[in-house]
Fold:
Amino acid sequence: MRILLVEDDALLGDGLAAGLKLAGWSVDWVRDGEAARLALLDQKYDGCVLDLGLPRRDGVSVLKDLRGRGDATPVLILTARDTRDDKVAGLDAGADDYLTKPFDLLELQARLRALTRRAGGQAAPTLTHADVTLDPAARSVTREGQVVTLSAREYALLHDLLAHKGRIRARAELEESLYAWGEEVESNTVEVYIHHLRKKLGSDFIRTVRGLGYVVGDAA
Amino acid sequence: MKSLRARLLIAVGGATLLVWAVTAALAYLSARHEAAELLDAQLAQSTRLLLQRVAFEDQRQRSDEGEGEDDEEVTDKFEHDRLNPYVQDQTFTVWRLPGHVLLRTDNAPAMGLLARTGYSDLIEAGRTWRVLSRRDATGRYQVQIAQPTQGRDRAALEVAMRIAGPMAIALPLLIGFIYLAVRRGLAPLNALAGEVARRKPDELAPLDADDTPPEASPLVAALNDLLARIAGTLDNERRFTADAAHELRTPLAALKVQAQVAGMANDEATRMHAIGQVLAGADRAAHLVEQLLRLARLDPLRGPVQMHPCGIEDLLLEAVAALAHLAHEKGVTLSIEAPQPPVMVAGDPEMIAVALRNLVENAVR
Structure:
């Protein structure tokens, strides 16, 4: 799952990027409003953490631009502006959630999980298919009640496929979801991780749709 | 300082008392004068009547009896009408000249025949008397009527009291009215004091100047000015606190996030990086607090900003000089390129200096 982080403060942005990566997200971090607008145009994100007081373009303007295009990417506003009017304005501009600084990293992670879950049209906090259950809050995967140990990339790939259950995910889509900017994408990595997951979860858990990509569950 | 009410009461009351006393004294004196004239006229009337009567009686007696050498002295007692204060203890003696007493009241003072006629004041038997002495036209008889001055004074006093009495009753009434008028006149001041006293510490709305008398309006204007300045100062401090809290939010959020990342990280490199960031964040927060304190130390009570023309270059030189040490520590070179002629802006030099210093300091760090 790939997140766009928009924060102009170097120290906070660095901490947020690290904290979100720890929770299993791929994070792209931009430091001004214009860069955020371009990134959102260029890339399909699973969520966006947006500061309001930004150089070059205000956060609310970025948000309005995004919603104006009909883009439904979940957006969480993270700001020092804490008056009721600020919150109302932010939510009415199209934000899905609003968190004021200072905040708790665990709370931010939980809110982002909730946002991405709802955006995927799912109500339950865990993702399940057949005998496999993925718990995003605990970052754990179980099969028939037994914990399955996965690497960070394997987990991220499984999370993406389960979150898009029944939809065919192209290799390029999966790569974008796995790798943030600046991270080297090795060739055949997706195939390698799929292979590892099939070994751990059963060979028919992830199906290959030839020429299109991979899918968990029956393709719609 | 005495209260306005006491001042007014003392001044107006004192003046009233003084005027009243002078009026009473003048009334007494003029009453005395009038009473004396009245009583003197009474004396004159009596002497004339007595002389006519005595001359007539004496001549008739002498023509009846022949010229008697030694007429007996006639002493009579006159009843006084005590009901009328103007009827005085009138005593008289009548002589046939050159020295024979014809008639004498028993309470008449034992005074001899006076050489001179007309009014005089005599002391006889321990009392003072008002005496009118008169001879008839033939020069054969003389009448001396004496009246004790004590009675005359009493009559004068009586008249004076008739005038002063109502005035004496009027005086306390007048003082009472003056007191009430002063109280009523000063009521708006009391109302004003009450309004100020009733206020809560944060009620800083200006006082209503329309309700105050013109005499108190400079005071109300000064109070309103003070209230406005206090409100401005409080407002500034509130805004400063809010701004400071706001400015500190992002560094605090960064500190917390970095600390949480350090706690959650499962590899050493991430943890060490996060801990380094926590330290950097603490330094930055401390620096921010330092700058906020510098702003807070700008005298919040000096009121609105005074605009002066200031030379930016001089202020910049000061800021750079103050930060030269820090720049050296950080290995940063500071230089100033200033255009000619020097740029002048309108503003508060002290505040511009703080702003420049903060700008340069942020750049160096």
In short: Chain A has eight helices and eleven strands. The helical segments of chain A are 10-22, 33-42, 59-68, 84-92, 105-119, 152-163, 171-178, 189-201.
